[in-house]
Amino acid sequence: MMDAQVSFLDQLFAKGVLHDSGVDGLYARSGEFEDVIARFEKFALTYGQDEISEAMVFPPGMTMQDFETSGYMKNFPQLAGTVHAFCGNDHDHMGLLQCMAAGDDWSKDQKPTQVALTPAACYPLYPILSRRGALPAEGAYVALQSYCFRHEPSKDPARMQMFRQREYVRVGSAEQTMDFRETWKQRGSDMMERLQLPHNVDVANDPFFGRAGKIMASGQREQELKFEMLVPITSEEKPTACMSFNYHMDNFGKAWNIRQADGTPAHTACVGFGLERLALALFRHHGFDTSKWPEGVRATLWG
């Protein structure tokens, strides 16, 4: 599998679709790659566009306070990233420069800022909704996009450390959020059919950390809280999750104090599109020359 990952990554570099930075999972993208992503986003937004209540785009960082509230460090410390910065004086700066000149570790005086790298696109939305007070009866239905970071360097081009998620998030009652997720599972399959990508939907779990994490992952699967749209990119045997369909119950509603109109904690669900992964899937299955992609796929993305 590793050979297949490296082989595809090498092809992407050779064709100029991606450009190596020297750090695994951190790549420059070509104009053509970005064009495919832009066209996919436009295509994705044709689904459910009459249902959304608003749209937002988030920066790649979120407040440390909201990051802590999310519980991400409790569940996925191995993936998290935080922003540190130099906060010293002139004397400290001289010491930093001397360390750099000597090839020593100069980062020891870096201090944590109030910013964490966003690990999931929907996280910054929840505190915004909380500050507004109780939700209307129809709840909230938000289209959003964000750059995300997860510290898992890999030769697999589909496992980038910095990547974008396009999401729809539904906040409201258990019935509203569950209906939303089931609807999007069907829509996701329809989207893959129109893009002529091999796919299947399967129950999944998040990569919870440690011994307790194994129990949490098992519970998540048993309750069928997470499904993934799997598409072969670097492996037929282990296809890549290119979409996810998640029901969080009222966990985030309680964490951020998001209330339904009747005052009870809101339930949340989201559907996430891995934009880089979907672009890679299209290049993998249809070739590196987008002008030669199947007519139906070009009609879907280029109109």
TrEMBL record:
SUPFAM superfamilies: Class II aaRS and biotin synthetases. Gene3D superfamilies: Bira Bifunctional Protein, Domain 2. InterPro entries: aa-tRNA-synth_II/BPL/LPL. Its EC number is 6.2.1.-. Keywords: Ligase. The keyword Protein biosynthesis does not apply. GO terms for molecular function: ligase activity. This is Amino acid--[acyl-carrier-protein] ligase. It comes from Roseibium aggregatum.
